[in-house]
């Protein structure tokens, strides 16, 4: 209990600059944890949705029926969004450019690439902030520490006889700033690395789906021309 009181006392007795540094770091930590929980939920849902859609897509369902089912929803994300964008553009161009399968495929692939870029951007939301917190928090804490130690030594110069009891509180309060900086940085770095890896895996999965779906659309386009 005394340890907690002494730490609280140090925080309250710290200089304005050190207190401001601590408040900034606490605010960054709270914001990063909020974003960590939000990104975790979004990416987890994206992984589950991708698996479900792939299972349905490769189950042999008719693509027109699948497109109608997907379009009936108010919003589409992940592979659903890529499929909807590609099939919609394919159907539109297939009617107006029936004898030009290359133009049809180019338009469908372009639509899916745009959709892929948007999905990756959606998944990476807030990741730059986590990277920033992880990289600058220790330095902000170090600034508070240097400032606190500097003030302690300046205060020592004004007394005739210096003792450890006079120096210790100032150094201790300064070191707390570094501790808070590390507390903010470490979770942010771990989360950023984990989420970045998961986004890369999802992006690879989306890109593979775009290629496979493009091959299916290409075969349909060629077959329809041959049948005509």
UniProtKB/TrEMBL annotation:
Protein name: Tol-Pal system protein TolQ
Keywords per UniProt: Cell cycle, Cell division, Cell inner membrane, Cell membrane, Membrane, Transmembrane, Transmembrane helix
Ranges for domain MotA/TolQ/ExbB proton channel: 79-205
Keyword Cell inner membrane: yes
Pfam families the UniProt entry points to: MotA_ExbB
Subunit details: The Tol-Pal system is composed of five core proteins: the inner membrane proteins TolA, TolQ and TolR, the periplasmic protein TolB and the outer membrane protein Pal. They form a network linking the inner and outer membranes and the peptidoglycan layer.
Protein purpose: Part of the Tol-Pal system, which plays a role in outer membrane invagination during cell division and is important for maintaining outer membrane integrity.
């Amino acid at each position: 209990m005394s340890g907690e009181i002494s730490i609280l006392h140090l925080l309250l007795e710290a200089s304005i600059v050190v207190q401001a540094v601590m408040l900034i770091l606490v605010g960054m930590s709270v914001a990063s944890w909020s974003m960590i929980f939000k990104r975790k939920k979004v990416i987890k849902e994206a992984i589950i949705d991708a698996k479900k859609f792939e299972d349905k897509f490769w189950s042999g369902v008719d693509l027109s029926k699948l497109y109608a089912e997907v379009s009936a929803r108010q919003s589409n994300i992940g592979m659903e969004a890529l499929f909807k964008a590609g099939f919609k553009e394919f159907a539109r161009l297939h009617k107006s450019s029936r004898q030009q399968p290359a133009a049809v495929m180019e338009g469908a692939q372009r639509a899916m690439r745009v959709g892929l870029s948007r999905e990756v951007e959606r998944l990476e939301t807030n990741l730059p902030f986590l990277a920033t917190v992880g990289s600058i928090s220790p330095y902000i804490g170090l600034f508070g520490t240097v400032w606190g130690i500097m003030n302690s030594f300046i205060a020592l110069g004004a007394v005739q006889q210096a003792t450890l009891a006079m120096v210790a509180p100032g150094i201790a309060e300064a070191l707390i700033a570094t501790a808070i900086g590390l507390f903010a940085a470490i979770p942010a770095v771990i989360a950023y690395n984990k989420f970045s890896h998961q986004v890369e895996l999802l992006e690879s999965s989306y890109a593979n789906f775009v290629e496979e779906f493009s091959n299916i659309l290409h075969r349909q386009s060629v077959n329809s021309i041959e049948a005509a």
